[in-house]
Amino acid sequence: MLTTTTPDVLIIGAGPAGLTAAAEAIRHGLTVRIIDQNESRTLFSKALVVHSRSLEIFQDMGFADDVVNNGKKFRSLNIHTGNKELSRIVFQELNWKDAVFPYWLSIPQSETERCMEDHLSDLGGIVERNTELVDLEQFPDYVRVSLKHQDNSIERVDVPWVVGCDGARSKTRNLLGLELEGKADDEVFILGDVIFDWDLPEDEGHNILSTDGIVLIVPLPEKGRFRLIFHMPELSVTEEPEITLELLQNLINQRTAFNAQISDLTWSSTFTSKHFVVSEHRQRRVFMAGDAAHIHSPVGGQGLNSGIQDAYNLMWKLALLHHGQALPELLDSYTVERHKTAQDLITRVGTATKIVTLKNAIGLQLRNQLASILLNTDKMQNRMGRDIAMLDIEYENSPVVVQDLLSQSKVDQILNKFKYVLDQKKHDFHQGPSAGMRVPNIMLPANDSTQTSNLHDLYQGTHYTLMLFSGVTNAPDMDTLLEISATVQSQYQASIQPYIITVDPQSDLDGNQHIIVDADKSIHELYAAWQSCLYLIRPDKYIAYRSQTINQKQLTAYLDRILVRKVAN
Ligand SMILES: Cc1cc2nc3c(=O)[nH]c(=O)nc-3n(C[C@H](O)[C@H](O)[C@H](O)COP(=O)(O)OP(=O)(O)OC[C@H]3O[C@@H](n4cnc5c(N)ncnc54)[C@H](O)[C@@H]3O)c2cc1C
């Protein structure tokens, strides 16, 4: 048995969740090992849709361009019954609001993982393949892990932290004795990646609500190639159908009005619908992420995307704690935030799967009639954008998410003072983005008038960002804001980057890079910052804390709950 020196964190499994966790660990200054039992990454197309929030995360990590350049943007999703079109959802026309990537991106999982692994390698990380987790034991200060290598030798590693990203059949989960809570519907789907010989657009998807079973046709980046997915109501989970080109062609002929020839079947698979969440996302020094923590049907394409968000949510917290910059409550929030998100997700995906797999004739008729009404409303169509893209996930119930709001009478008093000049609703702080929400984005005019950048770029990095808004109506003097900014910076140093946002163009005359002049008040408006107020943004671009007044004492009280001061006072 070999005993090795250890990294700060060991990642089990190099799928999308593990690759995100490993790269994020390095970006946040941790040493890392990532192992996988397989000899190479997946060669299969599996998860096809990378959603808008994942692309934002990839942008923050630094490799979004590689993914976007190798994917195909969906133009639309057309919903039919037989030969009748019920609805056409054109993705460019949806209300994406502040999304930087306002589309669904089709890209095979093998290619997404290639981009992720290249990114990891650029950061100096290597996936150790043919290496399997076989045992794990927890001690107060470390986890003792046994790894089996290709030559059957066993390596023992004592490591401070472990992240189990080892997929739906997770060995980490089993070794910890964690339960999966939920149920299996056991509806059977078959799929195949084929070339379509038709004259329909290359970048459009189709959903056929056939009474024989729903059909999905999803474009892949390769010219002429599409993913076919068929619900097979008659099949039971124990049957393993042989998926041939002939079977897929017959199903196309039987369930759709497309007069299309298919060829070149490169990958096929069967999957069943299951909806489970792990009982705990963390047990002491071991965390669960990705499919190891939640299993759901691929309807809506959420699996790969939510695993990426798990890892992105976890690693900055782990790094801050490990480096002695944060308190345990911050790391505890991983479980609360991602467990609740996973539960909500399986509920929603479970309902959607139930609707698409309805079998009884009256239910089917009703579903198709309702679909033709609902899917043509703006509300439902827009849900196909931001909602499915995971841009509106909130952590409002997180223990580390706080807002200090004035009482309504105080607000009324202030607003009344300015009632002749203010549109009250627009400038009510309560209407601004709440603590626990993804921070809103906005395009900003850059110095060069031909370029623009967006507000998210300002928060880029591994630190918190403090936004001290001068407000429009009652700006406190600049010296007070500069003093708060300097105090926070000296107390928390690299953990927090403060900025003062002011509407006064005279304020940055001496070129202070921490002062942002918001001359057109667009940032103030976005944050409902009509009065002076402050927002604290987390490294994962969520609002950690906001306060309706700039109050150093309240801010310090919040920060002292989650972060460790470098300088006492
Ligand atoms: C047909 C199909 C279509 C899908 N479509 C979509 C979609 O469109 N959008 C979407 O978001 N999701 C989709 N999914 C789901 C998606 O593929 C998964 O959610 C995703 O792969 C999960 O990523 P992960 O990193 O958590 O786990 P995995 O990708 O399963 O990776 C786990 C890794 O851990 C390794 N491992 C396991 N055990 C051990 C061990 N003991 N020691 C070391 N290594 C170990 C495995 O070799 C593997 O590489 C689809 C899935 C399927 C099957």
Task: List unreliable stretches of 5+ residues.
Answer: none
In CATH, what is the homologous superfamily of the domain at 2-40 and 109-179 and 277-387? Answer: FAD/NAD(P)-binding domain
Largest sheet geometry: 8 strands, mixed
β-sheet strand percentage? 25-35%
Strand order of the largest sheet: 7-6-15-16-17-14-18-21
Large-scale geometry: globular
* E-strand count: 29
Class derived from helix and strand content: alpha/beta
Distance between the termini: 50 Å
Tally of contiguous helical segments: 16
CATH top level label of the domain at 2-40 and 109-179 and 277-387: Alpha Beta
Helical coverage, percent range: 25-40%
- Look up the CATH topology of the domain at 2-40 and 109-179 and 277-387: FAD/NAD(P)-binding domain
Let me know the average pLDDT.
91
Kindly provide the radius of gyration, computed on alpha-carbon positions and rounded to a whole number of angstroms.
26 Å
CATH architecture of the domain at 2-40 and 109-179 and 277-387, please? 3-Layer(bba) Sandwich
Bound molecules: flavin-adenine dinucleotide
